Structure formats: structure tokens, C-alpha cells
From TrEMBL:
One of the record's GO cellular component terms: chloroplast stroma
Glucose-6-phosphate dehydrogenase NAD-binding domain mapped to chain residues: 113-291
Top EC class, one word: oxidoreductase
Function statement: Catalyzes the rate-limiting step of the oxidative pentose-phosphate pathway, which represents a route for the dissimilation of carbohydrates besides glycolysis. The main function of this enzyme is to provide reducing power (NADPH) and pentose phosphates for fatty acid and nucleic acid synthesis which are involved in membrane synthesis and cell division.
Reaction catalyzed: D-glucose 6-phosphate + NADP(+) = 6-phospho-D-glucono-1,5-lactone + NADPH + H(+)
Protein name listed in UniProt: Glucose-6-phosphate 1-dehydrogenase
EC number: 1.1.1.49
Naturally occurring in which organism (per UniProt): Perilla frutescens var. hirtella
Length: 595
């Protein structure tokens, strides 16, 4: 038995009520409108409450003290006959059955950011927590603790955090007031990552803040990977909850190959159950990545097209217009394939290519992702191109090469760019190249999925396109960032008396369609971890499958000391990527007139 308390205290009881979290009742009292999609048996393990901020809102409504369950989706309005029910709170005896954590007043969530003095904590985690607070998405009783070795007082932590809260909502109404309220709930404890005594002190402070309520604890490991296990051990043995849930968000990298990843998982599992481990891949929290399933599974028009019958190739493209400045030490040990391809791009590929899951339940989705990952063909070294950026001077400005970074060895061969051709050997995708391209210090910043469809057979209009049939190919682009958009390239007639054809975009540009700002990926993921929603976190078998795919080719590249193709900082990357694509009769969609 591991040292932590029940992984999901709120859901482990056989009581029909047991699936509810305290946030549920908090939101119910707030009379948030809900809506119905299907009936659900409340004994079902799928029934759980998720707050108004969740994408899936399975909600349990109390009707005259009895339990009536409805599973609801976010955008539907609450049917008239159910209006008002959401304000009904359970009678006392039901509260007993639910367990005390379901009582709003009696439960609390403590979030400890381990490594609070670091870059990620400042840049992403605290701003995301504040945004959730601002949006009223955090539970009523919560406390945030920063934990790191640096000496800091609570006031100093607040000061540090306040300087980072120039986030997306800083221009909003009452932001200063909200910020002040938020900061009052942030505290700091200084300690070593491998000291059980220091975590015991943290535990004492957490308890004080919990004030006798049921304690639910979330630890966010925002520290270098070599100290993950120490920190988990100490948190587990000295600071886990005794009567609520304890969960740990683990940042990447989860190892650097199959062996080290398996070793990390097995070390973590000495102290945690799999259900307690939330392996974060922040790309899964990005709006357009989340939207991929909606696009696929709620639009009939795409369903028949989504296979080798109509899709010629799929491209997954990541580029950044800056180098590894400041993170060279970390990066040199990993390289772009481990940093971006093995996780972010592969996760997108899995969501793109998986079969329809049985339901939107986390396990059903993750089962499908694992299946597709396990159907992938081993990557051949000939299907990989690696590059590294070199210094470049443009317009009087000079940009450093990768090895100019003092933390990077001068003779480093670590790729800062890679392109690869991958294949899925199953009935749906047989023979379709999935091309990936990822690079740092390129000419622009973008992340997108491009789907190029087949040519129209016997196209009546072929002669109007000239010899380049690719120009007439339909293409679906899901632009993850920047300027989130989904657009489809179609062919149309240029208005006029002649018959000239043009290629145009049917464009769903998010900023034109929606005035609401898009939340940062970390907001979605933090909220999900608090609510115990695992859909967007990586399960250990997914991780194994991802490493099994990339480890052999990574080893081969390293053993053969493959020399990267050097490309100038700010360029479009190595030409080798074009030869690779051409081998599969593909042109990268982000190059040229149609990008
Ligand atoms: N920064 C980013 O953009 C991203 C980061 N990540 C991952 O998130 C995690 C945190 O990243 P980031 O904040 O950049 O990391 P940092 O290097 O900033 O480290 C975070 C904190 O950990 C402590 N620390 C740093 N090095 C050591 C060490 N050798 N031994 C013990 N403690 C150390 C420091 O706190 P103190 O000295 O006060 O104890 C530091 O403030 C890492 O796993 C990283 O790979 C993932 C995606 C993006
Ligand atoms: O995980 C990582 O992601 C960032 C890119 O994230 P984004 O949300 O800004 O697109 C990348 O810069 C970093 O190298 C990598 O570790």
C-alpha cells in the first residue's frame, strides 16, 4: 500500500453520492445554469460533478431530497422544468451519505507549487491560478503554497507573484481588487526537496490553513526532473492528505527514453497510485487541440473523409522564432525530438488519428490514443532529418547560434530542428504519411495541423489549375497558435464572365468569431487536476507507447553521431525537410503562397 491516502477519496465510496466533489455543491448553490445531454445511472463510475468551468458538466441535481442524475453538456440551456433545481442543496442525511468532502463548508483544496521560485511557476502556474480565481473557477476554500529552497517570506512571494500577474485578464474589471484577494491566499514555505522534515513543516502549515476541513491536496512539481522522485517521496510521506485526495502534477520531461521513463514511473509508483499522477502535456490544454475531437466527432461532414480514402497526408508543424536562450542547459540533454515531437506533436497525432472513443470519459479516450500509438510503424532513421541553428546577421542585428550559448558544449550535435515521416499501420491510415516538423530559431512562431486531401478524380477543372494539381487540393488547417483558427482551402470561381479558378479559405478565425479571450492551457489543466478530470493528462501506458516509438531512432541518431544540417537563425530550417517530404510526394503546407 502506498503512503498516500485514497487517490480519489471523493469517488471511492460505493455511495451514489460519492462521485461529487465539494466544488459541485459550491456551484450548485451558486445556481449555475446546466443543461441535459443524456441520462446517467448514478452508480456509474462516470458520474461525477464538474464545475461550470469544465468542458463536460455531468451534474447531479437534487430533487426533493432524492437524487436525480442528469449528464449535461455545456452549451445547452437548462430545460424549463429543471430550472431552480440546481439551487437545491442535499438534505443533511444525504450529506452524511456523500461524505463530508461534499459539503462545501467542510472541504478545502490546497495547491502547493513545488519549485515556486522558478521560471514556469512565475510564467505560467501562478498566472493560471489567478485567472481561475478571477473566473470564479476555484473552490470556495483554497490555499496556495509556494515551496522552494530560496528564502522568501509570504510577502516576498506575493510580490514576486504580483509581478507576473500581468496576465491576459489584467485589463479587466476589478482586477486589482481580485488580485489582492488572490494574493492573500498565497503563502510560502522554504525547504529542501529531499527533506521530510521540511515537508512536515509544510504539512503543519497546510493543516492550519485547512482549519479542520477535509483536506484535498494538489502538488505541482515545477522542478527539474532529477528531483521529482525526492519531492514526491517527501510530499507523500510527510504532507499528503489524511482524509481527502492527494494528487501530483508532474511536468515533462518524463524521462529521456523508454528505460528512464519506466524507471521514473516505477519510482513515482512507490509513493503514488497511477490515479494520483497527472502527467502534464500543456499542448493538450490548448483550445484548438481540445477542439480537435469536437471537430472530428460532432461534424458529420468530416467523418467520411477522415481516413486514407480521402486524406493524402497530415502535417504537424511546430516552429518558434526564438532559440533556446536561457534553457540551453536543459535543452542540450533532450533536443527537439524529445522536447516537442515525442510529446506535444505525438499527442496531437493520437487525437487526430484515434478511433471514436466509447465515450468522453478519460479512460475511453486514453484507450483509443494508446491503440493508435501502438499501431505506429517504427520510425526509420532515413525518415528523420535533424538540424541545428547557427548564428546569423540580418539587418544589422546578429543572432546567436545554438552552441554560442555558454551552457551548451561547443561540439554539441543536439538537434534544434527535426522533421520526420511517421506511419500508422492500421486500416484507417494505411500508407498515409504523417509528417512532423519542429524547430527553434525559425522564421516564425506557429503550431498547426495541416490535412491535405486527395486530388479530385477526373476533375473537370483540371486544365484551369495548370500543371500544379497540388494547388487545387483541399486542405484543412487547424492553427493552434498564434491567431487560433480552423480554415479550409476550397476552390471557387473568380467572379466575372470568364472561368478563372481561385483557391480561397473558409475561415473560422477565433478572434473574429469570439470576443472572449482564450484561456491559457495551464488554466484548463490545473482546473482539471483539481476536479480529478484525467482526460487531458498522459496515462503511463500512453507514455510507454510514445517512448517505444521514438527511443530506437533517438538511440540510432545518437550512436551514429548524426551531424545536424545547420540552418541560419531566423530561416525556414534545413532543406532536408523538403527532400523528406518530397519522398512521400508531399509539399509542406506552411511554405509558399498558400501558407
Ligand atoms: N520553463 C518552461 O517554459 C517549461 C518548463 N517545463 C518543465 O517544468 C519544470 C520547471 O521548469 P522551470 O521553472 O523552467 O525550472 P527552473 O530551472 O526554473 O527550476 C525551478 C526551481 O527548481 C529549483 N531548482 C533548479 N535547479 C535545481 C537543482 N539542480 N536542484 C534543486 N533544485 C533546483 C529552483 O528553486 P530553488 O533554488 O528556490 O529551490 C528553481 O527556481 C521542469 O521540469 C521543466 O522541464 C516544461 C515546459 C516548459
Ligand atoms: O514544452 C515546451 O513547450 C514550449 C512551447 O510551448 P508554447 O505553449 O509556448 O508553444 C517550448 O518553448 C519548450 O521548449 C518546450 O519545453
Amino acid at each position: 500500500m502506498n503512503a498516500l491516502s485514497s487517490p480519489n477519496h471523493c469517488c471511492s465510496s460505493s455511495s451514489a453520492y460519492a462521485a461529487h466533489s465539494s466544488i459541485g455543491f459550491h456551484q450548485l448553490r451558486k445556481n449555475i445554469p446546466f443543461s441535459v445531454i443524456s441520462q446517467n445511472k448514478f452508480e456509474s463510475k462516470h458520474v461525477s460533478f464538474r464545475s461550470k468551468c469544465s468542458p463536460l458538466s455531468d451534474v447531479v441535481l437534487m430533487q426533493d431530497g432524492a437524487l436525480a442524475t442528469k449528464s449535461v453538456a455545456t452549451n445547452e440551456a437548462l430545460p424549463k422544468k429543471l430550472e431552480g433545481l440546481v439551487t437545491v442543496t442535499p438534505p443533511e442525511e444525504d450529506k452524511e451519505a456523500i461524505g463530508s468532502d461534499a459539503k462545501d463548508d467542510n472541504s478545502t483544496v490546497s495547491i502547493t507549487v513545488v519549485g515556486a521560485s522558478g521560471d514556469l511557476a512565475k510564467k505560467k502556474i501562478f498566472p493560471a491560478l489567478f485567472a481561475l480565481y478571477y473566473e470564479d473557477c476555484l473552490p470556495e476554500h483554497f490555499t496556495i503554497f509556494g515551496y522552494a529552497r530560496s528564502k522568501m517570506t509570504d510577502a516576498e512571494l506575493r510580490n514576486m507573484v504580483s509581478r507576473t500577474l500581468t496576465c491576459r485578464i489584467d485589463k479587466r474589471e476589478n482586477c486589482d481588487e481580485k488580485m489582492e484577494q488572490f494574493l492573500k491566499r498565497c503563502f510560502y514555505h522554504s525547504g529542501q526537496y529531499d527533506s521530510q522534515d521540511n515537508f512536515m513543516e509544510l504539512n503543519r502549515k497546510l493543516k492550519e490553513h485547512e482549519g479542520g476541513r477535509v483536506s484535498n491536496r494538489l502538488f505541482y512539481l515545477s522542478i527539474p526532473p532529477n528531483i521529482f522522485v525526492d519531492a514526491v517521496k517527501c510530499a507523500s510521506l510527510s504532507a499528503s492528505s489524511v482524509n481527502g485526495w492527494t494528487r501530483v502534477i508532474v511536468e515533462k520531461p518524463f524521462g529521456r527514453d523508454s528505460e528512464s521513463s519506466a524507471a521514473l514511473t516505477s519510482s513515482l509508483k512507490q509513493y503514488l497510485e497511477e490515479e494520483q499522477i497527472f502527467r502534464i502535456d500543456h499542448y493538450l490544454g490548448k483550445e484548438l487541440v481540445e477542439n480537435l475531437s469536437v471537430l472530428r466527432f460532432s461534424n458529420l461532414m468530416f467523418q467520411p473523409l477522415w481516413s486514407r480514402n480521402y486524406i493524402r497526408n497530415v502535417q504537424l508543424i511546430f516552429s518558434e522564432d526564438f532559440g533556446t536562450e536561457g534553457r540551453g542547459g536543459y535543452f542540450d540533454h533532450y533536443g527537439i525530438i524529445r522536447d516537442i515531437m515525442q510529446n506535444h506533436l505525438l499527442q496531437i497525432l493520437a487525437l487526430f488519428a484515434m478511433e471514436t472513443p466509447v465515450s468522453l470519459d478519460a479512460e475511453d479516450i486514453r484507450n483509443e490514443k494508446v491503440k493508435v500509438l501502438r499501431s505506429m510503424r517504427p520510425i526509420r532513421i532515413d525518415d528523420v532529418v535533424v538540424g541545428q541553428y547557427k548564428s546569423h546577421t540580418r539587418g544589422g542585428n546578429s543572432y546567436p547560434g545554438y552552441t554560442d550559448d555558454k551552457t551548451v558544449p561547443k561540439d554539441s550535435l543536439t538537434p534544434t530542428f527535426a522533421a520526420a515521416a511517421l506511419f500508422i499501420d492500421n486500416a484507417r491510415w494505411d500508407g498515409v504519411p504523417f509528417l512532423m516538423k519542429a524547430g527553434k530559431a525559425l522564421h516564425d512562431r506557429r503550431a498547426e495541423i495541416r490535412v491535405q486531401f486527395r486530388h479530385v478524380p477526373g476533375n473537370l477543372y483540371n486544365r484551369n489549375f495548370g500543371t500544379d494539381l497540388d494547388r487545387a487540393t483541399n486542405e484543412l488547417v487547424i492553427r493552434v497558435q498564434p491567431d487560433e483558427a480552423i480554415y479550409i482551402k476550397i476552390n471557387n470561381k473568380v467572379p466575372g464572365l470568364g472561368m478563372r479558378l481561385d483557391s480561397s479559405n473558409l475561415n473560422l478565425l477565433y478572434k473574429a468569431r469570439y470576443s472572449k479571450e482564450i484561456p491559457d492551457a495551464y488554466e484548463r489543466l490545473l482546473l482539471d487536476a483539481i476536479e480529478g478530470e484525467r482526460r487531458l493528462f498522459i496515462r503511463s501506458d500512453e507514455l510507454d507507447a510514445a517512448w517505444s516509438l521514438f527511443t530506437p531512432v533517438l538511440k540510432e541518431l545518437e550512436e551514429k553521431k548524426m551531424i545536424p544540417e545547420y540552418y541560419p537563425y531566423g530561416s525556414r530550417g534545413p532543406v532536408g525537410a523538403h527532400y523528406l517530404a518530397a519522398r512521400y510526394n508531399v509539399k509542406w503546407g506552411d511554405v509558399g503562397v498558400d501558407e
